[in-house]
Structures are given as structure tokens and as C-alpha cells.
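Work Package 3 (structural annotation) set out to generate three-dimensional models for the target panel prioritized at the project kickoff. During this period the team completed the workflow that converts sequence records into C-alpha cells, so that structures can be stored uniformly alongside our sequence database. As a representative example, we reproduce one entry of 65 residues exactly as it appears in the project archive.
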Amino acid sequence: MGDSWEKQIAELRTDIKHMLHSQEIMQKQIRDLQKMSNMGAGGLKVLIIVGACLAAVYTWIRLID
């Protein structure tokens, strides 16, 4: 009877280790996704700024002509 409890406790410990490992992997993936989405948002901001500058230059040239 004592072996049964010890075996169950050992299995629970193993399960907990696996869950913690899975949680660490998921947290790393979430950090990577956040980093990628922040990079994408930064790229869009740069694209908007460059587009606005080009539009301003184009407008200025049309006004001068």
C-alpha cells in the first residue's frame, strides 16, 4: 500500500515537472510573438512616416510648379 502512494506521488511530481517545462516553453513563445508584433508595429510606423514625408515633398513640388 505504501508503494502505491509513493508511486502516485512520483508520477505527480513528474507531471508537475512536465507542466512547468511546457509553461516555460509557452512563455518563451509568447515573448517571441510579442517581440515580433512590436517589430511589425515599428515597421508600420516607419512606413507611415516615410510615406508622409514623400507625400509632403510631392505636394511641395506640385505647389512650386
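Residues 1-65 form one domain.
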